[in-house]
Automatic annotation (TrEMBL), chain A:
It comes from Billgrantia zhangzhouensis. Keywords: Signal. This is Tripartite tricarboxylate transporter substrate binding protein. Belongs to the UPF0065 (bug) family. Residues 1-26 form the signal peptide.
From TrEMBL, chain B:
This is DUF112 domain-containing protein. It comes from Billgrantia zhangzhouensis. The keyword Transmembrane applies. The chain crosses the membrane at residues 17-46, 58-79, 105-129, 135-156, 163-181, 255-282, 361-383, 395-415, 421-438, 445-462, 474-495. The keyword Secreted does not apply. Keywords: Membrane, Transmembrane, Transmembrane helix. Residues 17-450 form the DUF112 domain. Pfam families: TctA. InterPro entries: DUF112_TM (IPR002823).
């Protein structure tokens, strides 16, 4: 059937309307008509979310396309990761990846890092085990002792089973023969609320998550090898100092920005430049310093190599925790 | 005081005021047009709000919300068909007034009542939300589960009058909310997972497309049936005496106060929305105006009281509904669920934290809402002359417009991830068909919507509560707050039965 003139006009009009929405070709990346989604695979308000939003704010000034943050939490970052993997590899969807991605992938929750390419390695946030300020235990050893009195009762919360806090809590629990009731929350924000509300005794937090409620919390131990760079946590002992130097747990959460494997180089290059400029901005540098976030910036191949190294280092820990799925 | 100044700074800009004005006009027009509800309006503007500063975006959405609730009274008064269910109780007296040639007074009083109700609820919101926020630490998974359950029971029992049908629809909504993948293990949860697990269905049914489908698309399908029916004539407007006299208003103070109070209170309860508040307020106004020597005109006779009571109540719901949104992150109805979504996108997490550390934003939202209410009032008055023209838009134009907006709105929510956006349009269309079938079968739609909104919250909090209690289900009977809620739920479910069985007497004629 020959299309009538009206039909042909309609078709042409449709194509005209549809054209700007076609996946952009690499050479004109980014198309400023399009929106770049930044998928944070955790609920809003947690450590990862809070560390990323100011960076995105700066990135807005270095990219012509609009940026939009989407919090897709669930299954310890696996649901947000899967969301990215279901989208085209065109550079218009970014994932805030990191140790949570490594944890979730190794636990078989998502294809995760096998399908990702790192654009930029960003920074680390140290983990701190903390309880409410009015609780009787003043050291990590006392907390463990209290837990061992009635094994499996005392709640040790984490920000999601897939993430690094999840692995850290399981590793701690194994080391003390299941003394704790390890409970996953949907992100650090929800964990904080329920520890503050007295419903979960202890939690593994990102350092920055405790900063806004310093008076309410009592930090017992920092999980990194070194003490905190922040004045507020200078007195918090490391695990080794607390007498647990044989405890092998992830010491903090690492964050990176990744895209789906197969994303055009041009897009990755442009993104890496924008992220770099945003990262170097005074505002973001100041933010990291105030939050005690440890910088490890690199882009593209270097970032990928850093990430691969982390993956290799994580495997024994995850296996030891009994969480590894082939 | 410092926070208030900082809040003012966030909201006092020409750009913000223009967005609020635009949202307000859009809300009134959408509210006045049959088939486009407040939820649709807010959902359509959601993608726009992503690209505005947080306070501006939220204020604009609230302007659409308040405008749409108020705008619904226009066709209720002029034609006797409400723009959306929020104005359903305004018809009785509003239409009578229009037929008596007092349409101008009815419209003006409705606008004034909307402003009064809205401002009243805003004052309640401003004074109680910070206090409530401090109490939210008492709300753990057990209590949040209970609150969601209470909301669902409430809506199921009052919409449509048949508890069983309402409960069935709420359960269906929860079922739809559970589709996707398990929040802990990421295991696919859907029929035929081997086929669907790699499709966008793995993230389940997203709220916005579902809401647009249930409200927009299904209404367009319903409207199709009366495409050929002649449109009712719009009565001529006389534009003198838009407002009741000051003395009259003074005599009505109790009607206005109680209606606004009822609206605010109902708004605060999750589940019960404006469509319930308006009837409660109207009932109350009837009792007040039928008291001898009250000096008031009886409702039902085409009285200003009968218009102002429901109209102040439905706008009071808007402020009330923001209380659980800002303090607990629990939406009271579909429209505030979208507002909550907008807040989350901007990284604003409701609860104690927000009130402790981000008071300037909270103030900015409050001030923005006040502007939105004033804009709503102003544009309703300015627009009085234009309303008859809006109402003359033929259905043959309106239906395709609604469908088009539904699809555009759905597509825009997820940017340009084409697969996802196409899937979302499919969801909107499918939910439109489901909604249409439900309406035709005489089942209530609102419990389904609320089940969809609260389903994930029910699940997450239930599982977390049981995990914290190490598998002990009795944890749900150990919280005094939850026990209170359970008692309320039992009351809601069994009170009508007891009444019917004659065990309780004299409650209602």
């Amino acid at each position: 059937m020959r299309p009538s003139k009206t039909q042909a006009t309609l078709l042409a009009a449709t194509l005209l309307v549809a054209a700007p929405n076609m996946p952009a070709l690499a050479q004109d990346w980014p198309n400023e008509e399009l929106v770049i989604s930044v998928i944070v695979p955790h609920a809003a308000g947690g450590g990862t979310d809070s560390a990323i939003r100011p960076l995105v704010e700066e990135m807005r000034q270095h990219l012509p396309a609009r940026l939009q943050v989407a919090n897709i939490g669930g299954a310890g970052s696996a649901q947000g990761t899967d969301e990215l993997l279901s989208r085209p590899a065109d550079g218009y969807s970014l994932l805030i990846a990191g140790t949570h991605t490594i944890g979730a992938t190794m636990q078989g929750l998502t294809e995760g890092y096998h399908e990702l390419e790192q654009v930029a390695a960003l920074n680390w946030d140290a983990f701190i085990v903390a309880v409410l300020a009015d609780r009787p235990y003043t050291t990590f050893a006392e907390l463990v002792e209290a837990a061992q009195e009635e094994p499996g009762t005392l709640c040790l919360g984490n920000a999601g089973m897939g993430g690094a806090t999840g692995i850290a809590s399981v590793a701690i629990n194994l080391a003390f023969d299941h003394a704790f009731n390890v409970t996953p929350f949907d992100g650090g924000q929800n964990l904080r609320t329920d520890v503050l509300g007295g419903r979960c005794e202890a939690g593994i937090f990102s350092q920055s998550e405790l900063l806004s409620n310093l008076d309410d919390f009592q930090p017992l131990a920092i999980l990194t090898d070194e003490r905190s760079t922040l004045e507020a946590f200078r007195e918090v002992p490391t695990l080794a100092e607390a007498g647990f130097d044989n405890l092998e747990v992830p010491g903090g959460s690492f964050r990176s920005i990744a895209v789906r494997a197969g994303t055009p180089d041009e897009a990755k290059q442009a993104l890496a430049e924008a992220i770099g400029a945003a990262y170097e901005s005074d505002a973001y540098q100041r933010f990291m310093q105030e939050q005690g976030i440890i910088s490890t910036f690199s882009v593209l191949d270097e970032a990928q190599a850093y990430f691969d190294e982390l993956v290799a280092g994580y495997e024994p820990v995850v296996r030891e925790a009994g969480l590894y799925r082939e | 005081m410092h926070d208030l100044a900082a809040g003012l700074q966030l909201i006092l800009s020409i750009e913000t005021l223009l967005w609020i004005a635009a949202g307000s006009i859009l809300g009134i027009v959408l509210g006045a047009l049959p088939g486009l509800s407040a939820t649709m309006g807010v959902a359509l503007m959601l993608p726009v709000s992503f690209h505005l500063p947080t306070a501006t975006g939220v204020a604009m959405l609230l302007a659409v919300y308040a405008g749409a609730v108020a705008g619904a009274s226009i066709p209720a008064i002029l034609l006797g068909t409400p723009g959306n269910p929020n104005a359903i109780a305004t018809i009785a007296d509003g239409l009578k007034m229009a037929k008596q040639g007092r349409a101008g007074l009815a419209l003006g009083s409705a606008a004034l009542a909307s402003l009064i109700g809205g401002l009243f609820s805003l004052i309640v919101l401003m004074s109680f939300a910070p206090l409530l926020a401090r109490a939210t630490l008492l709300f753990g998974p057990v209590e949040k589960f209970g609150l969601a359950l209470l909301g669902l029971t409430l809506i199921a029992s009052i919409s449509g009058g048949q508890v069983v049908r309402g409960m069935a629809m709420a359960a269906f909504g929860i079922l739809l909310a559970l589709l996707g993948s398990d929040p802990y293990t990421n295991a696919p949860r859907m029929p035929f997972p081997e086929i669907f697990a790699r499709t966008p269905l793995h993230n389940g049914i997203e709220l916005i497309p579902a809401l647009i489908g249930l409200f927009g698309v299904s209404q367009a399908l319903v409207d199709l049936e009366r495409l050929k029916a002649p449109r009712p004539a719009v009565p001529a407007l006389r534009l003198r005496n838009l407002f009741p006299s000051a003395a009259r208003l003074k005599r009505m103070w109790r009607v206005l106060l109680e209606s606004s109070g009822i609206g605010t209170l109902v708004g605060m309860l999750p589940g019960a929305g404006a469509s319930i508040a308006v009837f409660l307020a109207y009932d109350r106004a009837r009792a007040l105006t039928h008291t001898p020597d009250s000096g008031l005109e009886s409702t039902g006779s085409g009285s200003v009281e009968g218009v102002m009571a429901p109209e102040s109540a439905n706008n009071a719901v808007t402020g009330g509904a923001m209380v659980p949104v800002l303090t607990l992150g629990i939406p009271g109805d579909a429209a505030t669920a979208v507002v909550l979504g907008a807040l989350m996108i901007q990284g604003v997490v409701p609860g104690n934290e927000l009130f402790m550390h981000n008071m300037p934003l909270v103030y900015a939202i409050f001030i923005g809402m006040a502007f939105a209410l004033v804009a709503m009032f102003a544009f309703q008055l300015i627009g009085v002359r234009l309303f008859p023209h809006i109402l003359r838009v033929p259905l043959s134009l309106l239906i395709p417009l609604v469908l088009l907006l539904s699809l555009v709105g759905t597509f825009a929510v997820d940017g340009q991830a084409v697969t996802k956006a196409t899937y979302n349009m499919g969801v909107a269309l499918a939910m439109g068909l489901i909604g249409y079938a439900i309406k035709k079968a005489g089942y209530p739609l609102v419990p389904l919507v609320l089940g969809l909104i609260l389903g994930a919250m029910l699940e997450d909090n239930y599982r977390l509560a049981v995990k914290l209690a190490r598998g002990d289900q009795w944890v749900f009977f150990q919280s005094p707050i939850l026990l209170g809620m359970l008692a309320l739920i039992a009351l809601i479910l069994f009170l009508p039965r007891l009444k019917r069985a004659g065990i309780l007497r004299g409650a209602r004629p």
